Amino acid sequence: MLVNADLHIHSKYSMATSGKMDLPTLATESGRKGIQLMATGDCLHPKWLSEIKKLKEENGIFRFDDMSFILTTEVEDINQVHHLLLVPSISKAEELYEFMKNRSNNIDSDGRPNVRLGGAEIAQAAKDAGALIGPAHAFTPWTAMYAYHNSLRECYGDMADYIYLIELGLSADTSYADRISELRCLTFLTNSDAHSPYVNKLAREFNRFEMEDISFEELKMAIIREKGRKPVINVGLPPEEGKYNESACIRCFRHYTLRESIIKNWTCSCDGTIKKGVKDRVNELATYDKPQHPPHRPPYLHLIPLSEIIAMALGIGTNTKGVKKIWDALIERYGSEVAVLVDADIRGSGVDERVVSAIVAFREGRVKVHPGGGGQYGRVELSNSKPEAQTVPEPQKSLFDF
Q: What is the tally of structural domains in the chain?
């Protein structure tokens, strides 16, 4: 069976997170997005774990209505690097909590705790618990492995061989990561890292896996790529839309080339700090000039959230009643956001023709992305005219093409 999974989110118990990130809301909204397996996030937080314990559990999967949840957490190590853990059971989450609580000042107050442990120590604890671990949003210039380390081994030491996954983050895709030879054997994850259930945040990136059923062991085999289980597609934003794609000032958001940044000693003309972008960081780390995709690497499908397309078509804000009304109507008619974006014939949908035209333009590849940087998301522009032949992006494919 094919399973769409978003394996990194946060609950209402994380800092700067919506109070609506609760189990009922997550279950409902994930289904409307087209997800079958959703991360719990924050499974080391005692209050959140107590809520999860109330759910029916089978084979490491927790059910709320029609949604399946898997225990996950993100922790920050002593070097400010963030790690994503996929945890097999309540008892193992409790073991990890007991191990980390004396090494953390905020594990009871923040769903994403800071722990006084290095990457190797956290990886060893994950291995002892039967959990999977890998770098979270590995390329972003804040709290990411490649922000502070030049290699997996530098981050995880002798435990580097236990790392099977790496989360790319919103500002990178497969074409970026497959320029780095040490990542060749890893499974790439594309997750939303959502802090709110808004339709342009939750499941804005997700993974599709080939699995026999939905269980922790099946997901583990899919990530390790054993017995025919495997990832079959990564789905995510165009990397240029990520807010750290290019090097830019974190105050005024002016963009700079790497050479300009070095000449200016990473200080903008406005005296703000220029933050190195993912594109420039990948160029520093790259083994290859062009990506070298291993045979096991699945395709990467770029999707822009439906709410953003509707907002652009109508010229209004993303989180407005007008956008929500049309989004709800399309989901009600076609079942999920994925169906609307890539699979359904929407010409008879009955919604504003500007929205239909925008979705069609997106499917046909008539999209221009103005890169983000310095903490500001990139801007997507949809064209109603056919671009010149040499600049036409590859038309959008259906998920059923993969």
A: 1
